[in-house]
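Figure 6 in text form: structure in, sequence out.
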């Protein structure tokens, strides 16, 4: 029997027990948590990596029932991870400062301290005096595919340069392709062998991070809605599957329901996840938290204080982790 020491005010976390560990360790077991998100674009956002001004897109099947090709916008995993790793570190820094706890100097890129809750969760590599030290990440990201097709969510802006002297607009300088507001990207963040404390830190990070701006810090406002958490010994669904399944529900009843507070009803998302649970290898280990129960957990996570005691215990876990990796 695991002794997770979950505090009373977060008792809903015991519904995710099969995916949590007592303390973080360098050697990974099978405990897995999948955090399902609806990343909602709140401002015209540029999602691209190449200087071509084109959005990152890819062809996927329309849905599992309709295999005809459909162009979707891609929100790359690396973009999500970079922003959230920094946000995690910022929250930690401010919380420690507020409680008068000494913090390490740790920043991307090139100066990871290898010795803080961020480094042992997100992973880190450092080379000193020719010797390389590496910590394996326990958080995993995957690219997210827009729920709706590219044609429905893309907006092109043509921008002109204004001549300050004559106030006339010159030749068009170019076109910027952006993703329109209210676009949804179903997305999954996966945690391996984390403690309830690390889960709290990640949930607070996801819920409070809103700026994913790419170029010139224009746009990029995104709101993350946590729509489900699945615990178990494996990943039961991928972010592409999640997009295709939700789109299928959307096109079949045109009223996609990813959340319900009604005890007698099930959201479409719950129905989808229950189907995937049936396909799981360790089906008896799968725990699904959605709808009203998830709402209660999220409220208790928001209310949970990053107290001195909590922060010191996170630091203590880092110490234990480092000692184990030296053996
Ligand atoms: Zn660090």
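Output sequence:
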């Amino acid at each position: 029997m695991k002794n997770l020491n979950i505090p009373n005010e977060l008792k809903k976390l015991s519904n995710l027990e099969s995916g949590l560990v007592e303390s973080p360790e360098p050697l990974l077991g099978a405990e897995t948590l999948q955090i399902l998100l609806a990343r909602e674009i709140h401002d015209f956002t540029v999602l691209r990596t190449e200087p071509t001004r084109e959005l990152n897109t890819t062809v996927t099947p329309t849905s599992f029932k309709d295999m005809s090709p459909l162009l979707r916008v891609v929100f790359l995993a690396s973009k999500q991870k970079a922003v959230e790793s920094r946000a995690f570190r910022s929250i930690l820094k401010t919380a420690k400062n507020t409680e008068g706890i000494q913090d390490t100097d740790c920043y991307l890129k090139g100066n990871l301290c290898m010795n803080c809750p961020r480094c042992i969760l997100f992973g880190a590599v450092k080379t000193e005096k020719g010797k390389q030290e590496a910590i394996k990440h326990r958080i995993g990201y995957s690219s997210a595919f827009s729920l709706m097709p590219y044609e429905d969510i893309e907006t092109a802006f043509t921008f002109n340069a204004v001549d300050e002297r004559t106030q006339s607009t010159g030749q068009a300088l170019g076109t910027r392709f952006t993703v329109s507001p209210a676009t949804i990207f179903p997305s999954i963040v996966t945690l391996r062998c984390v403690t309830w404390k690390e889960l709290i830190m990640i949930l607070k990070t996801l819920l409070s991070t809103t700026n994913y701006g790419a170029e010139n810090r224009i746009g990029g406002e995104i709101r993350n809605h946590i729509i489900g958490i699945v615990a178990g010994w494996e990943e039961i669904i991928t972010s592409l599957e999640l997009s295709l399944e939700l789109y299928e529900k959307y096109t079949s009843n045109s009223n996609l329901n990813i959340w319900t507070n009604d005890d007698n009803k099930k959201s479409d998302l719950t129905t989808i996840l229950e189907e995937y649970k049936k396909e799981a290898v360790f089906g008896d280990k799968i725990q699904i938290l959605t709808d009203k129960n998830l709402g209660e957990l999220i409220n208790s996570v928001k209310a949970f204080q990053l107290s001195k005691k909590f922060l010191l215990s996170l630091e203590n876990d880092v110490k234990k982790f480092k000692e184990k990796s030296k053996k």
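Caption detail: Helices lie at 77-98, 117-122, 150-153, 196-208, 239-253, 268-279, 291-303, 308-326.
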